[in-house]
Amino acid sequence: MNLTRLIPFFVLVVAKCHSAFAKDLEEIPKATKAPKATKSPKAANPSKASPSVSPKVKKAPKANFSPSEKPSVLPSNEPSLSPSEKPSVLPSNEPSLSPSEKPSVFPSLSPTIDCDVTNFDELQGAINSGAYDIKLCSRIFLFTKEIDLSGKSFTFTCPNGGCVLDAESNDRFFYLSGERNSFDGITFKNGYSGNGGAIYISVGEVVITGSTFEGNTAPFYYGGAIYNRSGSAVITGSNFVGNTAGRGGGAISNFAAPAVPAVITVTGSTFEGNTAGGEGGAIRNNRGTANIAESEFIGNTAGGEGGAISNRGGSMDITGSEFEGNTATNYGNNIISDRDVTCTDDMNTFESSGGSGNDGLSGNYPVGLCAL
User: Fold this and answer.
1) Residue 192 carries which DSSP code?
2) Residue 184's closest CA among 215, 154, 219, 205?
3) Which of 81, 233, 283, 319 places its Cα 20 to 30 Å from the Cα of 60?
4) Nearest alpha carbon to residue 136 among 154, 119, 153, 111
5) What CA–CA distance (Å, rounded) separates 280 from 358?
6) Domains in the chain and their CATH numbers?
7) Residues 108-157 pLDDT 10s
């Protein structure tokens, strides 16, 4: 059979089939898109709604913010604060303190007290200004010359401790005359002068409390630390260590001019390692009055007499004091006296010294109640 004669027939059949299929497609309605949800979407039919599916909510449009207006990652209902107003990580109900007011990590039990002067020039300036109460700061004050307090009255204190006056063997520290001055909690080191290596008192009054005199020298005469000439010195709770006098009174010399008394009162103090080339390794009392109570005299030395104390022509009262290891080249390792020495209640202790002079008391006159 010749197949080419059948081609027109097949073409006609295919055309009719295509026409019928296209007509059927036109009769099928096109699917429409679901309308967009409005702000108030219609409630779903309860009978058809799935209990686990929630209706979609239209997202709110994004707001356009400037960089300074953009909210933080976690928005807050609190008002916006400037950097200086923002609270610290751990807010406190206590008031804000300046750096100088903030307490230290380990607060001190003894608060620091303000002081007035920090060096020699400021000290001299405060004295010249007439300030009565002068508070020294905790440091070393280097003295290049003596300060004259004649006719002036001051109170020198060291409120925070550690106040050291060091003359470096240039001169003594103070010359006092005619008025009352006091020193509390101050160390005097390396003073140097012919009489009174640290302090010279002339017809004045001085009160010394809780202070230390160390390494002061009167190379030619008397009073390695203090020379009192017809004045008054009240000394309490102080230490005299390693002071030297060329002649007498390695630590203190008390001298009364004719008809003008000189009085020293020493309580609760220690005299250790002081030296006199002549008499009174620690104290020399010449025609004055010396009252000594509850004090210690240890290891003092005299090149002449009275390893600890020398009393010449004066009155002396000693109560509850200890003498140990004092030495004298000639007489009286502890005390030499040419007048009666009153030992109240006989409460003093004299231990063997081992020096050339005899222990205890020695003198040309009876030693009264101090006799051992």
Assistant:
1) B
2) 154
3) 81
4) 119
5) 14
6) 120-370 (2.160.20)
7) 444 567 898 999 999 999 999 988 899 999 999 999 999 999 999 999 99
